[in-house]
Amino acid sequence: MARIEPELLENLVPLRELTPEALQALAGEVEIEEVPAKTVIFRRGGADGYARYVLSGTVVLVDGDNARRTMTGTGNAGVAPEPLARTAPFDSHAVAGTDVKLIRLSAARIQQLLASSRLPEAEVAEVSPEGGDGDALFYRLFDDLMNDRLELPSMPDIAVRVQQAIAEHEAGPADLARILQSDPVIAARLIQAANGAAFGGQRDVDALQPAITRLGLSTTREVVTAIALKAVFHSSNPLVNKRMVELWMHSSLVAATSQVLARKLSGFAPDRALLAGLVHDIGVIPMLTNAASYPALVKDPGLLEETIREYRGQVGSMILRRWNFPEDLIAVPLAAEDWMREVDAPGGDYGDLVMTAQVQTMAGGPAMPAADAAAVPAISETSAYRRLGLEELGITDSASIMQEARGEIAEAQRLLIA
């Protein structure tokens, strides 16, 4: 048995419900199962008594309707948080898409530890289902979230393929070009980005592979993910879709502003800042798409907005963790509107960057709901103002980055909304 640190298990479903002592015990019982690419891990209808989590590599799950989804682990940086199978008998086939390493645990042992050592539900002690309508709704939503009954969006397939190619196969520009040529829209946006002010050379590029070479693999990955995310901000319900469009416009403006800020500060990658800005409100999406399941939300739009404000950060971080985003971006949804947050990050972090972009866009943008407007402080009052050294850049309550860099911000936003 390989030794796995308990910290690697604490965010896994349902292991996160265990006490630290139970996690410590379980970590000592982990087996690492190595499976070659294109090997069947288990078949639908079978059962072998194990729970498996993807430690590294990619596993493809195929259900009875031949619908496919992938689960990817990136080693210590991010174990896929869900088990490959939630039920026995298994409801899907599981096939190794690449060489994979799986964390394997006895399902019976997990249930034994859950039964004897579930964490006390301190997190919901103030949100009792016996309270008012709002409290009851919060409790139900929180319970669905914690038990993975809430439908969460999936990472766009093209972004997953690019990330996997770079992470697992040491892909070069030609390899990425072959993947991306299947999506003409994203290919065109990449060429547009390569010819933009931030990356443009003496002459424009007009083909995909030279564009990827100019951008570099890391920037290509972040830009592809950012552009592909637009598909997530969509609903077949016209009313919900209207709100999704508004959310995308807001997120793209925050992303563009974050990118421009990152270019003016040391220690930040502009392309990563763009992605951080785009996903800061990703938690709103399941709030909107699942609203119809909660009658109280349907009857009371004000309660829906209150629910969104309460949970969007937590849900957003959960989505990004499921998508195997890095920790510095997983923290962004929780930080984006925590104006007075204190964090041990000299020079600031991406949460600070996005928080600053939020304040700047809210102060210089269209009218917003009164409850939101009242909660937004002056930029100089935020904790990020000091950490980022914004005063030295000349950014003050009266001198906004929105005014100084309007053209740069507009160019970055056009890449996302065109």
Automatic annotation (TrEMBL):
Domain HDOD: 152-339
InterPro entries found in the cross-reference section: cNMP-bd_dom, cNMP-bd_dom_sf, HDOD, RmlC-like_jellyroll, RNase_Y/CdgJ
Domain of life: Bacteria
Pfam families per UniProt: HDOD (PF08668)
PANTHER family: PTHR33525, RIBONUCLEASE Y
Protein name from the UniProt record: HD-like signal output (HDOD) protein
Organism of origin: Natronocella acetinitrilica
